[in-house]
Structure to design on (440 residues):
């Protein structure tokens, strides 16, 4: 059993990967480099709003999380990007440098889509670009910028309904997201680096030069585009491919610390030692963007709830705050929690929570959670599954997925203080409990 006290509240849970800006910390080789992740609501972030309280920031992050998978039927024709659209303000951010000489861009990073794109000059018309503080990227100023032809393999990697042939045989793309955001422009190639010195540079990277763009994530005018980190062929991760050994990992620190989380590529991403468990990674050919693993069941205290979904039934998504489960499984978990703890169920839990309960005194014992992935049992600390919202009110950091039955999501709050490695060549995801404040 875990004991939760009033000293532990959701104010300490704002470290989700869905709310970070990235900065390269150190570079050793092309195959191995580390990126710092700074919380979206940190004073170091360009999105920082000093007028908001910690609780308001948490609720906004949670609502962005919900927006990522809330879909309308009209969007189902876009299988590569529809399941996890970018949220209302932007989930987390990456600082990248494009072109020669390199131009700094701050872009929303998204593990639920593939295309890398930024706003480019000129816009198709006065209303076809969203407002941003920095100048638009001008491809004419980069000596290494080239457009991609309609007949190139890179153009055909876009779904058939997302590319056309423009003037001068240039590959034109249309990329849409489930929250009605979209980008239209030309597919191009240029150098992309991760620091201003160009020490970590990947030439001839494929990205979209957007001339007609509409987004819901840029209320502060800081973001200039989006970096797709999914598993599809045009994502940044896939393009870096051999250069990083098809490996990346991250370690998310709890909020309220003065430390940054780490995103690692290449050899640095490998995790090893006692406590490492691995589960097979599956990429679905019909939706190649998403990182799928198999959840066999979840233990809540002495009760084990088996999954009734098909294999490869849960998606690893570092851009979603909560963990989403099949409604029947969620209901069984709620029953197990209430039977194993001295809490009184709240009929109408505060948004965005799906289950909350009242407890007496200054602390409450709650049952432990173990996620049983195929070949990997991952025991989660209490702070990864519960939060004390206010005086004597504890809530689960789980939600039922009522929008897309059959799709479950392993969100980032569940992954805090774990090293999580994605080995796309070895087809596995590995977990290891860690003090991420000490991750180098």
């Amino acid at each position: 059993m875990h004991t939760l006290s009033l000293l532990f509240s959701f104010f300490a849970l704002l470290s989700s990967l869905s709310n970070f800006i990235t900065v390269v910390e150190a570079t050793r080789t092309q195959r191995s480099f580390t990126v710092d992740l700074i919380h979206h609501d940190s004073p170091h972030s360009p999105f920082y709003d000093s007028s908001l309280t910690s609780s308001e920031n948490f609720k906004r992050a949670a609502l962005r999380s919900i927006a990522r998978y809330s879909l309308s039927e009209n969007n189902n024709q876009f299988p590569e990007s529809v399941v996890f659209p970018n949220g209302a303000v932007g989930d987390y951010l990456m600082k990248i440098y494009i072109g020669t000489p390199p131009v700094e861009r701050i872009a929303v990073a998204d593990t639920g889509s593939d295309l890398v794109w930024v706003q480019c000059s000129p816009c198709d018309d006065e209303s076809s670009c969203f407002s941003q503080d920095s100048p638009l990227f001008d491809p004419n100023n980069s000596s290494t910028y080239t457009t991609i032809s309609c007949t190139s393999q890179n153009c055909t990697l876009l779904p058939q309904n997302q590319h056309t042939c423009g003037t001068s045989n240039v590959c034109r793309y249309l990329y849409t997201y489930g929250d009605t955001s979209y980008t239209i422009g030309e597919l191009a190639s240029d150098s992309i680096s991760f620091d201003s010195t160009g020490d970590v540079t990947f030439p001839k990277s494929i990205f979209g030069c957007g001339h007609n763009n509409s987004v819901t994530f840029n209320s502060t005018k800081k973001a200039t585009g989006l970096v797709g980190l999914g598993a599809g062929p045009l994502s940044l991760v896939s393009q870096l491919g051999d250069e990083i050994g098809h490996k990346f990992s991250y370690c998310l620190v709890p909020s309220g610390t003065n430390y940054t989380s780490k995103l690692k590529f290449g050899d640095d991403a490998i995790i090893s030692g006692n406590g490492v468990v691995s589960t097979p990674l599956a990429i679905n050919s019909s939706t190649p963007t998403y990182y799928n693993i198999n959840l066999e069941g979840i233990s809540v205290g002495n009760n084990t709830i088996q999954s009734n979904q098909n294999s490869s039934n849960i998606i690893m998504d570092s851009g979603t705050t909560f963990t989403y489960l099949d409604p029947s499984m969620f209901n069984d978990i709620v029953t197990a929690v209430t039977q194993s703890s001295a809490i009184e169920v709240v009929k109408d839990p505060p948004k965005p929570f799906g289950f909350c309960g009242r407890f007496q005194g200054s602390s409450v014992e709650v049952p432990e959670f173990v996620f049983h992935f195929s070949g990997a049992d991952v025991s989660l600390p209490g702070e990864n599954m519960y939060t004390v919202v206010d005086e004597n009110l504890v809530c689960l950091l789980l939600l039922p997925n009522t929008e897309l039955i059959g799709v479950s999501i392993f969100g980032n709050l569940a992954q805090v203080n774990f090293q999580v490695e994605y080995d796309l060549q070895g087809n596995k995801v590995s977990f290891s409990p860690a003090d991420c404040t000490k991750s180098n």
In short: Helices lie at 54-69, 153-156, 236-240, 327-339, 382-385.
